[in-house]
Amino acid sequence: MFSKFTSILQHAVEALAPSLPLQEDFVYHWKAITHYYIETSDDKAPVTDTNIPSHLEQMLDILTQEEGERESGETGPCMEYLLHHKILETLYTLGKADVSGKLG
């Protein structure tokens, strides 16, 4: 219940907040995800009960929008950030550790 409330609140804030440049918005969502893992103890809630799926969806939407605004073959700043900061590798590692922690 609390996670649904925070998700609704987050969407309301995002709707009322002035729009940020895509890269700033992308970095905001990534930092929100990493902040969860840094600040949460070992007794983490299932990812589905957090705002992580929403942040990931926002990141995907930003990448999709950025790709649509670019010329063919041109890499945008959000994609560059994703590649340079190895976000996919980090997500894989976090997911693998999360599953291992539940199985072990």
Task: Describe the structure in your own words.
With 104 residues, this protein is mostly helical. It is built from 5 helices and no strands. It has helices spanning 2-16, 22-39, 52-69, 77-84, 87-103. The mean pLDDT is 83.
List keywords for this structure.
mainly alpha
Quote the distance from N terminus to C terminus. 28 Å
Secondary-structure element series: HHHHH
Oligomer: single chain
Mean pLDDT: 83
Count every helix, treating DSSP H or I runs of 4 or more residues as helices.
5
Number of DSSP-assigned strands: 0
Describe the sheet with the most strands. Answer: none
Task: Give the helix level as a range of percent.
Answer: over 70%
Q: Tell me the Rg in angstroms.
A: 15 Å
Summarize this entry quickly:
73% of the residues lie in helices and 0% in strands.
SSE diagram, text form:
Blueprint: H1 2-16, H2 22-39, H3 52-69, H4 77-84, H5 87-103
